[in-house]
Amino acid sequence: xxxxxxxxxxxxxxxxxxxxxxxxxxxxxxxxxxxxxxxxxxxxxxxxxxxxxxxxxxxxxxxxxxxxxxxxxxxxxxxxxxxxxxxxxxxxxxxxxxxxxxxxxxxxxxxxxxxxxxxxxxxxxxxxxxxxxxxxxxxxxxxxxxxxxxxxxxxxxxxxxxxxxxxxxxxxxxxxxxxxxxxxxxxxxxxxxxxxxxxxxxxxxxxxxxxxxxxxxxxxxxxxxxxxxxxxxxxxxxxxxxxxxxxxxxxxxxxxxxxxxxxxxxxxxxxxxxxxxxxxxxxxxxxxxxxxxxxxxxxxxxxxxxxxxxxxxxxxxxxxxxxxxxxxxxxxxxxxx
Length: 337
Prior knowledge:
Helix content is 45%, strand content 12%. With 337 residues, the protein is of the alpha/beta class. It folds into 2 domains: 244 residues, Aldolase class I (TIM Barrel, Alpha-Beta Barrel); 69 residues. Strands 1, 2, 3, 4, 5, 6, 7, 8 and 9 form a 9-stranded parallel sheet that branches. Helix 9 crosses helix 11 and helix 12 runs antiparallel to helix 16.
């Protein structure tokens, strides 16, 4: 068993999200209580071509462990070779295979959730990576419950993945056709968890500690994965752990503490040079800033200001403006991926 599931542990995963869960955001979520990290997905072909832009997505720090690097592709042999390269470069705690991404540019290359329509090919990919990593690092996978409502096959897919050597599977309770709309089907996630002997991690509509506790109580999952809720409220991990331990909600995070974290994130992003100059880093942060500030006093005007920021100083000025407004932070809940 993967060590983070031992002794009845119930790990909280930060879901991999393209353009969101970079090395900086993962560090913040780790500090706030996330147990297991997974990188943004990377293309196996990009790794094989030694593309520097692709390789930067595999970056992590030792403080973020246990951390896995997520790969996508549709060729088991090439995926296995790419996994070995990543293991040689980075020594992650595990390799994760993306069988769940619904984005057209991934699906059009026969990657992500498109493999849910072709179980033999999905098995070939999973087996190729598992064999390449055998005895070195464990391999896990992330799936959706099916391609559409007429082809919900997650239980069968989980069984096949277990047979192929996957040591855990994360199941997002929506079909590819749903995207991020509608409700996640936790009945299907529960059925997956009861059908296999490896850990199943549930993903979808986890917004707070009560959601985590309910899924632990009512299903057979071994952990949960939190995505979109963490974009607005990375404190969700700390809040969930407190609720699991005490049955009580922590006080709402103050506006001052929220802005303190927002500014710290901006400074860390600018200092990381991942996006180049500070201007590019802060421009890349714009959508993230809007997510952070949902429910803040003066939210409409805040969004207008944040849509134009190009420097840390500009964000600092907006924070100072925000903190002069009366009102309280709105509901910090947000549907998760």
